[in-house]
Amino acid sequence: MDEPAILHADLDAFYAAVAVLEDPSLEGKPVAVGTGVVLSCTYEARAFGVRGGMRMVEAREKCPSMIEVDGTFGAYPQYSRKVFSIFESFTPEIEPLSIDEAFLDVSGSLHLFGDPMSIANQIRAEVRDQTGLAVSVGGSTRKFLSKIASQVAKPDGVIIVEPGTELYFLHPLPVSYLWGVGPVTKRKLNEFGIETIADIANTPFDSLVVMLGSGAASHLGALANNQDPRPISTTRKAKSVGAQSAMRSRIRTLEELKPMLLRLIDKVSARLRKKNRTARTITIRVRFGDLSSVTRSATMPTPTASTQAIADVGYRLLAKVLDEYPRHEISLIGVSTTGLSVGEPLQLALGVDDATTGGTPKELEYGALDESVDELRRRYGRGVITHGSDLLSGRSTFGDGLSEVMTPDERLIVAEDQGPEYVDFEE
Questions:
Q1: For the segment 139-164, what is each residue's pLDDT rounded down to a tens digit?
Q2: For residue 282, what is the enclosing H or E element?
Q3: CA distance 55 to 338
Q4: Residue 301 falls within a domain, yes or no?
């Protein structure tokens, strides 16, 4: 019988925990990290009903004594790198999901470190001793089940689901534990009386299709029956590169949002160029004050990593969203690039001068400018040069409550399959 050697390690309330470590005066107090929207919060804040993704205004109503901490990165990448180095001391088979969680295949390490429960506890002890952070670990023979086990184990716990007991563990849990069940899907399932994972497993497939569509029905039906054959993937190629920023929720104009979007695009395009990649499809995501969101995408004639070319497309997509939802409060904007290619040769374009078409004079001009900016930042640091819109607004960093929430560690910006394109709000 297979060993439950697929582990999922997830740092507990990572951003909030790091904030407390950096400022010990916050120890034992209700703390929320973020600006405008809660990115992460301590368990003392959660006792009042505060949750990740909640608007700060609502969080303060639930917990008037809550302490707010800016959500900018600070020491987060250093803590993340240290934790991942601990993971690597137990196994090279690691699949990062975000800055604070990863899958680990420890099947090749059992003869060195003991059974999966022993390895999980050693990892937890090492992380605690070397960083001061708590990490919860789940283990099983399936990736998705290990992730669920780590969530059930929180805070600061470990659960290993032994072979043969998977359905006994899985079926009593609420449907929200399954990947792919967000608030909307949960509401749909609950309306049909489906509350637990066992309810999904016992519902005829045709009925699930009527409720959710064929794709979601197949996906959730398989997971509810413990069917997930995916192995740990340590060699994934990047499918997308993206960044997003939260802000105080209110109605905003295109002119207000364009500088914010440009800063995100600047980061994304710089990362593309650093990895010698270009992108063909641009997607803009806008989240509203009620936490609903919309996305709009456009595919360019040729792939590019030009900041201005991506910005030209991004501005049009953002304007489209604002035209469609003129009275909605906005709490987050994000940009992602997909259709990535590596080192694709450039065909010069004749009779066209569009920045979004590769090989045109304007696109080549913008490309040369990007190269100069990248070199200046490489030599003297990112802050050596900024956008005119920042100078005109009197700020050179995220302002007006804007808080970047994308993982800063470039090894973790890959988005593929169930891996997150953006850092999720901690549940």
A1: 999 999 999 999 999 999 999 999 99
A2: strand 277-288
A3: 29
A4: yes
One-letter amino acid for residue 182 of the chain: G
Q: Is residue 423 part of a domain?
A: no
Cβ–Cβ < 8 Å for 394, 401: no
Same domain, 209 and 343: no
3-state secondary structure of 200: helix
What range does the domain containing 218 cover?
A: 171-224
**pLDDT given at position 237:** 55
Based on the domain organization, do 184 and 282 belong to the same domain?
A: no
What is the pTM for the complete model shown?
A: 0.65
Neighbours of 411 (CB within 10 A): 11
Whole-number Å distance between alpha carbons of 34 and 68: 7
Q: What gap in Å lies between CA 344 and CA 181, rounded to an integer?
A: 38
Q: How many domains, the chain? A: 3
Just list the catalytic residues: 101
The pair phi, psi for residue 170, each rounded to 5°, is -75, -45
355-364, 374-383, 395-404: least confidently modelled range: 395-404
Place 238 in a pLDDT band, splitting at 50, 70 and 90.
Answer: low
Residue 167 has pLDDT above 80, yes or no: yes
